[in-house]
Amino acid sequence: MESTTKTQIDPNAVKKICDRIYGKNCAISEIKELADGCYNASYMVHVESENCDIIIKAAPSDDIPILSYEKDIMKTEVHLYKKVKEATKIPIPALIDVNFERDLTGVPYFVSERLYGQPLNKVEALSYETRKILYTQLAKYLALLHKIEGDHYGYPALKKEFGTYRETFLDMVGILVKDGQKVGAGFPIDYEDFFKLIENHSDVLEDVKRPILVHFDLWDGNVFVKDMESNPTIEGLIDFERSFYGDRLGDLMQASFNIDLEKDTYFLDTYNAHTDEKIIYGSREKKRVLLHKIYLFAIMIIESKFRDVNGSYDGQLGWASEEFTKLIQQLKDFGGQYE
Question: Do residues 224 and 234 touch, judged by C-beta distance below 8 A?
Fold first, then answer.
């Protein structure tokens, strides 16, 4: 998707990136920009002299307006790739090189190995049984991910510390609201009313007692799969840049878009088999998932104002606004609503 945040890297800069890794005699035979991402620019590069493919991911330029929570999120992603690799057996791409000096491209970037499968959202005619096989694996990986604990709640790069996740989440929502107001982003409801509604329903977040690592962006596009005909397998999970420490139910949110967490019991059964802190999916848990859904769609609405290039985000904005409105009504239907 075309976005103001994507930094174009010319072939000369790509060659310098590869020279830094493989030496100046390395030869490149292909450079392909990957169009699917919405924030960073990514390139697949075939290094002929090494007979390997690599992925270069470049952050936005420093002068490009971004959401407040997006500050230094590439540093977050690199840090968490390393942490997850060290602490778990979750399949993720290996990092090859990291450079935040801006000396070769003008922006921070990192290089990782290529995954050769495909994103789950690109799989055509995905059957229920195949999704069940893959989501059983995903549930296990989430349980493993959630064994990682931080030393404070919230986004790592923001370095804001609160005593509870409830306070942290309300601060996250408040920062987002200020971003939207600052740029005049259209919003389905009044911003102040939105914040008060979330605040009024945030008591359930007091149930969160520890700052658990939450990926928060594990939609099907960030789940790479392989061997779909013979042995459907998750090849790797990607894009940890939007992760934070908080409520692990934030990671059930994306799964709940594709399965019914109550009826498709295999997902939580698998998750609970790999954790000492089992999830009982009751009404308070459902509300916690709903709050994170609303936060996600609020982000999608407001980021559209920041990133749009000649209508490139019109589709996302329209869809996200419709879904957001439905979710707000669901929250009000829980009772105790803000009038």
Answer: yes
